[in-house]
Amino acid sequence: MTTEEFLFKQFGSALLTLPQLAQLLNRSPAGLRITLAGNSELARKLRPARRKLGRRVYYSTADLSRVLNDPDSFGDPDGRH
Fold first, then answer.
1. Which domain of life is it from (predicted)?
2. The domain at 3-69 falls in which architecture?
3. Cα–Cα distance between 57 and 32 in angstroms, integer?
4. To pair with 27 at 20 to 30 A between CA atoms, which of 17, 45, 52, 73?
Protein backbone atom coordinates (compact mmCIF):
# COMPACT_ATOMS: atom_id res chain seq x y z
CA MET A 1 0.00 0.00 0.00
CA THR A 2 1.43 3.38 -0.98
CA THR A 3 1.47 6.37 1.34
CA GLU A 4 -1.17 8.08 -0.78
CA GLU A 5 -3.45 5.02 -0.56
CA PHE A 6 -2.91 4.87 3.21
CA LEU A 7 -3.84 8.55 3.61
CA PHE A 8 -6.94 8.10 1.46
CA LYS A 9 -8.00 5.03 3.45
CA GLN A 10 -7.25 6.69 6.80
CA PHE A 11 -9.06 9.97 6.11
CA GLY A 12 -11.50 8.98 3.34
CA SER A 13 -10.66 11.85 1.01
CA ALA A 14 -8.01 13.01 -1.45
CA LEU A 15 -7.90 16.33 0.41
CA LEU A 16 -7.15 16.77 4.12
CA THR A 17 -8.29 19.59 6.35
CA LEU A 18 -5.82 21.35 8.63
CA PRO A 19 -7.06 19.40 11.71
CA GLN A 20 -6.57 16.12 9.80
CA LEU A 21 -3.08 17.16 8.72
CA ALA A 22 -2.29 18.12 12.31
CA GLN A 23 -3.47 14.70 13.48
CA LEU A 24 -1.30 13.02 10.84
CA LEU A 25 1.77 15.01 11.96
CA ASN A 26 0.94 14.60 15.66
CA ARG A 27 0.67 18.37 16.14
CA SER A 28 -2.07 20.60 17.48
CA PRO A 29 -4.08 22.40 14.79
CA ALA A 30 -3.19 25.80 16.28
CA GLY A 31 0.52 24.96 16.43
CA LEU A 32 0.52 23.65 12.87
CA ARG A 33 -1.32 26.77 11.66
CA ILE A 34 1.40 28.95 13.21
CA THR A 35 4.15 26.81 11.68
CA LEU A 36 2.56 26.94 8.23
CA ALA A 37 2.19 30.73 8.42
CA GLY A 38 5.94 31.09 8.92
CA ASN A 39 8.87 30.36 6.65
CA SER A 40 10.17 27.18 8.28
CA GLU A 41 11.47 24.24 6.27
CA LEU A 42 8.32 22.26 7.10
CA ALA A 43 6.10 25.12 5.90
CA ARG A 44 8.03 25.40 2.64
CA LYS A 45 7.69 21.65 2.01
CA LEU A 46 3.96 21.52 2.81
CA ARG A 47 2.96 24.70 0.94
CA PRO A 48 2.78 23.00 -2.51
CA ALA A 49 0.19 20.57 -1.10
CA ARG A 50 -2.10 23.46 -0.12
CA ARG A 51 -5.34 23.89 -2.09
CA LYS A 52 -7.90 26.64 -1.55
CA LEU A 53 -11.53 25.94 -2.35
CA GLY A 54 -13.36 29.17 -1.68
CA ARG A 55 -12.26 30.25 1.78
CA ARG A 56 -11.39 26.73 2.89
CA VAL A 57 -7.88 25.32 2.84
CA TYR A 58 -7.15 21.66 2.12
CA TYR A 59 -3.98 19.63 1.61
CA SER A 60 -3.60 17.16 -1.26
CA THR A 61 -2.85 13.59 -0.17
CA ALA A 62 -0.86 13.05 -3.39
CA ASP A 63 1.44 15.98 -2.60
CA LEU A 64 1.61 15.09 1.10
CA SER A 65 2.67 11.54 0.26
CA ARG A 66 5.59 12.92 -1.77
CA VAL A 67 6.68 15.06 1.18
CA LEU A 68 6.29 12.20 3.67
CA ASN A 69 8.24 9.79 1.43
CA ASP A 70 11.10 12.26 0.89
CA PRO A 71 13.92 11.22 3.28
CA ASP A 72 15.10 14.86 3.52
CA SER A 73 11.70 16.21 4.58
CA PHE A 74 12.04 15.86 8.32
CA GLY A 75 15.78 15.65 8.88
CA ASP A 76 17.89 12.87 10.29
CA PRO A 77 16.35 11.11 13.32
CA ASP A 78 19.82 11.12 14.93
CA GLY A 79 19.83 14.93 14.87
CA ARG A 80 22.72 15.24 12.40
CA HIS A 81 20.66 17.05 9.74
1. Bacteria
2. Orthogonal Bundle (1.10)
3. 13
4. 52
